[in-house]
Design a protein that fits this description.
Chain B: GO terms for molecular function: transferase activity. The complex is a heterodimer of chains A (about 140) and B (about 240). Chain A has about 140 residues and is an alpha+beta fold. Chain A has helices spanning about 35-45, 50-55, 65-80, 115-120; strands at about 1-5, 10-15, 15-20, 30, 80-85, 110. Chain A has a four-stranded antiparallel sheet, covered by helices on one side. Chain A has a two-stranded antiparallel sheet with strand order 1-5. In chain A, α2 packs across α3 (about 65-80). Chain B has helices at about 15-25, 45-50, 65-75, 95-105, 130-135, 150-155, 165-175, 200, 210-225, and strands spanning about 5-10, 30-40, 55-60, 80-85, 90, 110-120, 145-150, 185-195. Chain B has nine helices and eight strands. Chain B has a single domain, classed as Spore Coat Polysaccharide Biosynthesis Protein SpsA, Chain A (Alpha-Beta Complex). An eight-stranded mixed sheet of chain B has the order 3-2-1-4-7-6-8-5, sandwiched between helices. In chain B, α7 packs across α9. The longest helix of chain B has 20 residues, at about 210-225. The chains are: A alpha+beta (about 140), B alpha/beta (about 240). The interface of A and B includes residues 123 and 126 of A.
Chain lengths: ~140, ~240
């Protein structure tokens, strides 16, 4: 089972969209609605088998969903978003049909647009003599 | 229509407000309006504003600084918006220099100034956290900025569910949406007063996790804006 790699990542979910901020590199990751729903269950400790069962219960589930899920998890691990974690058998695995609004696939998208802003906590880490976004050397 | 609307949110800072408004009405630039949004103060804020008849006064039940800022945005009529916290001060040529910069750089939508912290109380009463804040610079300090009002039409107002960091969230939201945040006047034109009641002090400014929470909120808002064609109004993101 898996959990968020909190030594490097900050996870947040809002309006069905997951965001994972890598506060070491300043990159952040997002996913489509279905990917967000799946990630939300995985990081809560739901087993991949339970997630796959929930996906197969959705109308129109493609035959290769198992392979898609494996690839999705592999990418989340390779990006150090997920690491091994405890099982949470209590967590509800139901995935609602609204998660299919943007398609029956799973994506991991990487974004650099907030990198400067995320790397520099403007309150504490900016070199005051030079200003944004020059970071202090430490 | 005034060139600049200056929004002064105030909650129980009547004791600082007169000095704040004096710095505002001492501006060398004259084409501005002042909107004091009293967020349910129980002190003499209303009475303090009465000494400045040119200031427009709005009272609302207490809902927090975001709500007060958003109320100001809804009432403002200026081409540009600036904020002045009720416990802070401006140097006399702040608006003049920012207006001139925006005139000279039509591609620029917001320009910050450098700010400095000051404390005019008994140094022995400064806590360690307050002392640390006194020595901290914030180059992208939203209250120092002069902002073309169209940006609030594009990006929305302040998130009212955030008890603090609402200004940082807005700046980050604009940045993630692609707004150029690199326009900065090198002079100190904004003075932030450090005292026991600063929101930044009472909400643990050293929490990296708090900053990430605000950053995540900003990213969510920005991504939602990019997905949704409808332009938000002040108070909604």
């Amino acid at each position: 089972m898996y959990r968020i790699n909190e030594s490097k990542m900050y996870y947040d979910m809002a309006d069905g969209q997951a965001i994972v901020i890598n506060f070491v590199t300043g990159m952040y990751y997002g996913s489509n609605l279905l990917g967000s729903a799946v990630l939300d269950r995985l990081q809560a400790g739901v087993s991949p088998n339970s997630v796959l069962e929930a996906l197969r219960g959705l109308p129109g589930c493609p035959e290769d969903m198992g392979e898609q899920l494996d690839a999705f998890i592999a990418e989340l691990i390779s990006r150090e978003i997920l690491i091994p974690g405890p099982t949470n058998a209590e967590e509800c695995c139901l995935i609602g049909g609204e998660a299919l609004e943007d398609g029956f696939f799973l994506t991991v998208d990487e974004f650099a647009e907030a990198q400067d802003l995320l790397l520099a906590d403007p309150v504490h880490d900016v070199d005051a003599s030079q200003g944004w976004p020059v970071l202090r050397e430490d | 229509m005034p060139r600049i609307s200056v929004i002064v949110p105030c909650y129980n800072y009547g004791r600082f407000l007169s000095e704040c408004l004096e710095s505002l009405f001492a501006q060398t630039f004259r084409d501005f309006e002042v909107l004091v949004v009293d967020d349910g103060s129980e002190d003499y804020t209303r009475e303090a504003v009465r000494n400045f008849p040119a200031a427009r006064y709005f009272y609302q039940e207490h809902h927090g600084i975001s709500s007060a800022r958003n109320r100001g945005l809804r009432e403002a009529g200026g081409e540009c918006i600036a904020f002045l916290d009720a416990d802070d001060l401006w140097l006399p040529d702040k608006l003049e220099k920012q207006a001139a910069y925006l005139d000279a750089h039509p591609e620029c939508n917001l320009v910050f100034t450098r700010m400095e912290n000051f404390y005019d109380g008994d140094p022995a009463l400064l806590t360690e956290t307050a002392l640390r804040l006194l020595n901290t610079a914030e180059p992208l300090y939203l209250p120092s900025a002069c902002i073309r009002s169209v940006l609030f039409q594009s990006y929305g107002g302040f998130r009212e569910e955030l008890p603090h960091g609402e200004d940082t969230e807005w700046v980050m939201r604009a940045g993630v949406c692609g707004e150029d945040l690199g326009n900065l006047l090198e002079e100190v034109l904004y003075r932030r007063r450090i005292h026991g009641g600063n929101i930044t002090l009472t909400h643990n400014p050293n929490s990296a996790r708090e900053y990430l929470k605000i950053a995540a909120a900003a990213i969510h808002s920005a991504r939602k804006l990019k997905r949704t064609p409808e332009k938000p109004s002040a108070g909604r993101t």
